[in-house]
Every structure is written in C-alpha cells, then in structure tokens.
Amino acid sequence: MNNREIADTFEKIADLLEIKGEVIYKVLAYRRAADSLRELVGDVTEYQERGGFTEIPGVGKAIAEKIEELLSTGKLGFYEKLIREVPETLTDLLQVPDLGPKKVGLFWRELGVVNLKDLEEAAKSGKLRTLAGMGEKSEAKILAGLESLARRTERIPLALAWPAAQEILAKLKPVPAVKIIEVGGSLRRMRATIGDIDLLAAAEDSKEVMRAFVELPDVSRVLSRGETKSSVEFKDGLRAQLWVYPPQRFGTALQYATGSKEHNVRLRELAQKQGLSLSDQAIVKPDGSEILCAEEREVYEILGLPWIPPELREDRGEVQAARKGNLPELLILDDIKGDLQTHSTWSDGKKSILEMAEAARDRGWEYLAVTDHSHSLGVAGGLSEEELRSQHEEIKAVQEKLGRSFRVLHGVEVEIRADGSLDYDDEVLAEMDLVVASLHSGLRQPRQRVTERMLNAIRNPHVDIIAHPTGRLIPDREGADLDMEAIFKAAAEHGVALEINADPYRLDLDDVHARRAVELGVMLAVNSDAHSPEWFDLLHFGVATARRGWVEPQKVINTWTVDRLLDFLKK
DNA sequence: GCCGTTTTCGGCCCGACTGTTTTCAGTCG
C-alpha cells in the first residue's frame, strides 16, 4: 500500500466513525493522520527506519500500529470489524450536498438507508420528512442534492476555473458599491483542481453586490443568499460563492477565505496561544476589543509572522517556517528568461520558428528552445533525422535574422520508446543544443518497467530535461506508476533537470513532487510546452505550481542567463 | 486518538446560513 491508499483507508474510517456517532475528536484524529499521509513528501516506508511512524504529524501509537498492519498485510482488522458494524456504502451518501454524517446516521438507523438508491427512494416516498429535525424542505433539498451529485464533475481543473473566475471578476468590478474584489480559496492558492470559485469583495453595503452576483448571466440556481455570503451554480455546473465585508475587515476576511482550512487552524491555534481569537471578522483581544485588519498582511503581522504567500498555505510547515523566518524566496514569473520546451510547424505546432522566437523576444525573454517531436510520435508529425538536420538550417537563419541579443536553441523532444531506448541515435542527440526526453506511450506499464525506461533516459549523457515526467492529464488521466524517489536521485546524480510543465491540464511535476525533487538536489525547468505564442501565457500556472512546491528561482534552469544555461547543458 | 510556550490529562478553530425549531442542530467553508 502506498501513502495515498493508507490515507484513503483512514479517511474512510473517519467517515464511518462519524456516522456511527463516535466522539468527534477521534474522527478528527483519523482525518488529520490521513491528511498528513497524503501530504507526506517521500514514501511512508522511509519512516520505518528513521524513528517510526509516530514522527508523522498526527500519528500516535494507535494509528502507527494500523499503518504497520496495512503495510505488512495489506489489510486492517479494525477496519474490517468497523464495516461489519457500519455499512461501507454509507460514505457515498456524504457526497450528497447538504447531507452530513448526522443525518446519514439518522437515515441509516431509522430507515435502513445504506446507499444512494435507498436514499432516493426514501426521499421520493416522503419517508425522510417524518424523521426528527427533518421536514419537507430538507427532503426536497436532498433530492436536489442527489441530482446535483449526478451532474457534478468532481473537481474542476485550474484550466477552466481560472478563466471563469476572471470573467466573473470582470463583471462584478464595475458594480459601484464594490471597493475591492478578489479571488480566494483554492483558486488563489493555485491548486491544480478547484472545488468551487470563492470570491471576496469589500463594500460598505453588501445588498447591491449580492444582487449583482446572484443575477449574473448563466446563473442557473441560487444555492444560498445572505448579507455576508451567497452562493450560486452556473448552467455548466460550476459553483461560485461570494463573501462581502466592510473594507476595514477585508484583510481578515480574505485571509480566512483563502484557506486552506488546515492553514487557518494552525493560525488560530497560534492566535490562541497569544490570548487572541482570530476569525473572518477580526482579531479579538482578551478584553473583548477588536483589532480590524483592512490588509491581509496585518493579520500575519499581529500574529508575529511575515505574510505567507497563498500558494504555501497548505499546512505543509509554512507557519513554522514563517515563525522561524525561514520562508523560501519563491520563484516569480519575471524570473523566467526563456522557455525550454516549445513546438513549431515542423511538428504539431501552429506557428513557424520565426514567429515563436519573435513572440518570445517580445516578451522580454533572452532565449527560446525549439523542441519539436521525434519521429516515432507519428500523431504529432515527429521529425526524421534528416528533417531534424534541415531544421537546423532554419534555426540558423532565424538566429541571424534576430541578431545576437536573443538566442534560439535547437532542441528536440525525443520520445522514450516502449523498450526504454530513445528515438534518435546518440550521434544525432549530440548535435543538439538541448535534448528534452519524454514518455507519451506505455504509461500504463508496470512500475518497475516504466521506471526503468525513465531511468534509462536520465542516464543518457545527451538528455538535459525530462518533460512532463509522470504524463498525467488533469482530470482524466493519472500519471504513470513511477518510482519517483529513484527518478529524483538519478536526475540529481546525472545533472538532468525535471520539468514542471505549465500546461494547466498537466502541471507535471506537481507541487509535492517538485518540492521533494529540489530537496534531493534536482534542478527544474518551468516550460509552457507552447504550440503557439499564446501558450506562453500559461507559464504562470507552472510558476504557481513551483511556488506551491516551495521552489526558489536559482533551482530553475530557465531563470539563468543564456551563458550559465549553455554551461549546464554542456555538462 | 493526538498532543504539550497553560497541560502526560484535558483539551482539541470560528462563524454564516438553513430549516426546524421556541433556542438549536446540522452542514459547510
């Protein structure tokens, strides 16, 4: 079992215990352990050697023993006993909006409801409304929730949520009462996928803002409407909620609504230790008086912390680092000096090498690598060795046209074939300025085989960068089952950089992997994989992913000057 | 079930909205 599978087991245990009516703090303990395991950098088995599982935050003696049992037998007696008592399928019911553990427990005990089908029947036959604390409206809400669940596509990729949020912002900014409006939640933290869009506005009077919000075009349903908070669902199923606060309270509100929930818990604990109480409204002193924060920065200052960038707010040690003054100097978009994975009309790109290079130069970059596909990727019009050589002539011509102040590098994105060999001979690769290697096929090979292919590419003396290492596509395709630790170690040893692909449907490496890679001494490259100049605009998604991985600019090879970069490529 | 700048026992983050309630419970973020 891997980290995620163990975490899922504990999450399930937490849900079942909560439905059963176990004391909430036991439930929270399992949930915290699950979160910890999910966020763990590196493999859980490493803790067996160094100090044991109780070194993991939120894991004590009891849970450590359960991890041990899961790792050695793949099963857990405690869990098997629990699901004989509380039907496992009850956790599906928690996915229904407005339905939580208390009511699920109630329906199960009173009506024998154990799955979504039972629930639907009970609601349609009017049985739910007869229960204590239930009524007609609650019953109707559950039916609506069931419909919404059937329609809803899990989490929304950043690729869709980001532009949608920008559109909403553009429509609400002109509302006269709106002083400030910003994105909060997981979108502000730039997570790869978003649950719903959270928006924060500052206004003296919220009524006008709320009205404009619930009356946005394409709103299909108003889910709730209040003076401080409203939420809506759009026709395409996307959901958004808006909080409105007076300007003098905007700082605490934005901090609160940005999350993550776990980050906020850490902050409130810190506040408590100082005798303060932190909420979305204000910081309250022991004598009951309020400190108002118009700026988010002030919230952190009062708690004795530097401002923590939203991308770090995942409770992955950022509060502790802030207390010690050890926050990283994160990569910013302006640090990027060029793109090291781009395509032209020679393969599946939409624009010529000249057009791509001019667009890159006009963005103020110092260099661009043209890295068209190699021949075995037929669908993308991969280049034969002869075509690659004639492409070199065109690169030279473009370079002459642009002059010496901007450098065009002749690279290639060479296919790592199913047998682990590369698509070009070493002599051909040796002629290139830059070799990017990547997997596009055989992603579902068994762990050992696909890992070995990747390691083979890393060991090739001509390979400089591994592009989109896991091959994941958000939200449809999981990455290959790679031994990432082995890959990071090999990449560090052989001086091969790993890419953070900025395409918001990829974001690969992800944040957790990027952080671990840097810890192990691996260099990174943040590339757009552009097939036309507009794709350069996607780079900020890659930068955000790097920031979420605590990545500092000096670890990213395309923040370097062209001379330093060429030196690295040569080695 | 976990954990320690109040503590090895007794705590464990805060508030809005909704619906069913005469004062609160459940859910969500």
Overview of this structure, please?
This protein has 571 residues and is of the alpha/beta class. The chain folds into four domains: 3-149, DNA polymerase, domain 1; 156-245, Beta Polymerase, domain 2 (2-Layer Sandwich); 249-323, Beta Polymerase, domain 3 (2-Layer Sandwich); 333-570, Metal-dependent hydrolases (TIM Barrel, Alpha-Beta Barrel). It contains 24 helices and 17 strands. The strands form four sheets. The protein has a seven-stranded parallel β-sheet with strand order 11-12-13-14-15-16-17. Strand 16 (497-501), helix 22 (511-519) and strand 17 form a beta-alpha-beta unit. It is globular, with a radius of gyration of 26 Å. The structure holds one DNA strand of 29 nucleotides.
